């Protein structure tokens, strides 16, 4: 996962308390609610210059940090969506 992504994501996770964010991090358990998901989506679009497709807006995408990163990475030019 990109360092910019984990730093951005951490700002929206009220229960992360400085814990490392891994691809398996449960975003809901770390405090991401539906309103924050929308704000996070706008921040992702601004930071990475991508728009996530409507079919990526479901609970599965926002379930874990890895799922969300794969959705972002798939929209980045030259990316494969792999979690690094």
UniProtKB/TrEMBL annotation:
**What are the UniProt keywords, alphabetically?**
Phosphopantetheine, Phosphoprotein
Recorded hits in InterPro entries, A to Z, give: ACP-like_sf, PP-bd_ACP, Ppantetheine_attach_site
Where the record annotates domain Carrier, the positions are 1-76
A matching Pfam family: PP-binding
Return the Gene3D superfamilies for the record.
ACP-like
Does the record carry Cell membrane as a key word? Answer: no
| Name of the protein | Phosphopantetheine attachment site
